[in-house]
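Section 3.1: Structural characterization of target chains.
Under the original work plan, the team committed to producing a structural model for every single-chain target entering the pipeline before any wet-lab resources were allocated. The record below documents one such target. The sequence was received from the expression subgroup and is listed exactly as submitted; it comprises 237 residues.
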Amino acid sequence: MIGTVHGVGVGPGSADLMSVRADRLVRGARHIAHFRKAGKPGQARRIVEGMLRADVVEFAMDYPVTTEIPLDDPRYASTLAGFYEGCAAHLRALALGGEDVVVLAEGDPFFYGSFMHLHSRLLPEVPVRIVPGITGMAAAWAASGVPITWGDDVLTVAPATLPEGELVRRIRDTDALVVMKIGQNLKKLQRAVAQAGRQAVLVEYAAMPEERVVPLDSVTSAPYFSIALIHGQGRRP
C-alpha cells in the first residue's frame, strides 16, 4: 500500500486557529515534516508544540538559502530546486513505503508557501491531500479591526518584491490591497503607497502574542511576519 502526504495548513500563528481536520491529522501523525530556517525551530513547528505523539518522527527541512542570494540570481533557483528535490525524495520514499506523512504549512499550503514546490514534485507518484488553513492575511485584517472589503470592492494581493512602478499601478487600480513579502522592500512599498495617494497599515505578527497594528508610514523596519493592508471603502447599505 502507498501512504499519503498531507499538506496541512496550521494557520497564521495560534494552535486554536487550526481546523478540526488539521488538529486530528497533526495529533495522529507518525511522520511530521516542516520547513525552517537553519538553526531555528520554525513557525509551523512552533504552532503545534505539545500536540505531537510521543513516538513521532520529525523531518526538519532546513532552507539552504533565504536572503543570502538575490532572487534574480540563477544560483537562487538552482539551489532551492535541488533542496526541494531532496525533500520530496525523502517524503516520496516514506509514502511508497506505506507511511502517511503530515507536512506542516504556515497559513494555507497553497498560498505563497513552500509546500507547493513539494506538491508538484510528489503528485505524479504518490497521493497528496491538502488541508486548507487560515491565511496570514485573514489574521491580519482581523487584527486591524476593519473589514478589508465592502460591497463590490476588488481585492488585490501583491508581493512587495514587484518593481516600484508596478506596485504604484496596482495600488491605484484596486479597491483593497494586501501586500506580502515586505522585509527589505519596506521603503519601496512606503514610497509606492504615497505615490498612489493611499493610506495603509502594517500588521506585524498577526495572531501571535507580539501582534501589532501601526500606520505603514510610521515604521522603519518590517519583521518577517508583516502584512500591509489598504482597506476597501466600497458600497454599503
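The chain has two domains: 5-131, 136-230.
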